[in-house]
Predict the 3D structure of the following.
Amino acid sequence: LQCFFGVVNPKQSTLKHQSIYMALGGLGTDTAPPQGIARFDCDTKLIDSWMPEGYEFCGEPMFAPKENADSEEDGYILTVLFNGKTEQSELLVFKATAISAGPVARIPLGIGIPHGLH
């Protein structure tokens, strides 16, 4: 798979970790811009992913831990989604343990943030 912008829970940085979160290209093994979001389980080697519409593109994922988190995966994945049809952007929020369930919140930003802007 085409994977971009891998990130872990900041508390696990430089330590053994269970999960890596990343943006995925929408064309499998073919080169494509970042479009979806995924969680890679380092133990099972399974990937849990979500892909938006063909005209929507996710940016770099960020991990936001819950306050008083019980585990490494207890938190949320945040990313900016650019809609190529409307040229508007949204902040997407995913439960870190359930990426394939899709965003638990979609917050319109009222502007278009260029895809690929960090």
Notes: The first strand starts at residue 3 and ends at 7. The two ends are 22 Å apart (CA to CA). The CA atoms of residues 56 and 83 lie 5 Å apart.
